[in-house]
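Write out the bound-state structure for coenzyme A.
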Amino acid sequence: MIMVQIEFKGSPFIGEKTALRPVELADLDEIMKWFNTYETRRFLLAFLPYSRAQEEEWIKTTITAANERTEFTFAITSKSRDDFLGTCSIRQFNWFNRSGVVGIAIHNPANHDKGFGSDALLCLLKFGFRILNLHRIEISVFEFNERAKHVYEKIGFTEIGRKRKAIFFEGTYYDEIVLDFLSDEFFSRYP
Ligand SMILES: CC(C)(COP(=O)(O)OP(=O)(O)OC[C@H]1O[C@@H](n2cnc3c(N)ncnc32)[C@H](O)[C@@H]1OP(=O)(O)O)[C@@H](O)C(=O)NCCC(=O)NCCS
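---
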């Protein structure tokens, strides 16, 4: 059985539309159903399809990383139906500077633009700032991923720079845009 969360108002793991929980081996079927979709993967520079064995291995690494406190990866589920929508993670911690890097993917393109990604990312940020006590959280996005950039800026990230023409995608080089969010900005926006 996959973990059950009892809703508690104020939990960083429960948003308006989504909830975050650890990724389970039982999620493999759902991951294999949609995550090899090129429409989703091209934004992650993960063009090569992944086999079931590779995805299973990846889930196991998320468990090890969580135990070692080096990275926290969550399954994103919809609150209304409790179904698996995708994953998000927070990683690359620097505990002296209190910083980390986040990433997110809603796997099935049919679930894009329904508010799930924004809601889940806000949960992840609450976990990062309120529970991990991070001071700065970074995210990056490819220039051609206008939807993701819009979402990040809508939530409150600020563009801080670009790795110019760092990303090769189907014949063209694009900038990788780096954005960040500081804890005081976060708490004034989401008290
Ligand atoms: C990026 C992603 C996480 C966003 O999650 P989502 O659930 O689709 O996004 P939401 O529904 O919360 O918000 C979408 C917003 O983008 C807007 N949008 C959609 N297409 C857009 C475009 N081409 N340009 C600008 N804005 C766009 C929508 O209007 C909506 O704006 P609003 O909330 O102001 O009305 C999700 O689309 C995804 O996983 N994509 C594939 C993988 C990926 O890109 N991951 C991020 C890598 S950096």
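---
Residues 40, 43-44, 86, 104-106, 112-118, 141, 145-148, 150-151, 154 surround coenzyme A (CB under 6 Å).
The two ends are 35 Å apart (CA to CA).
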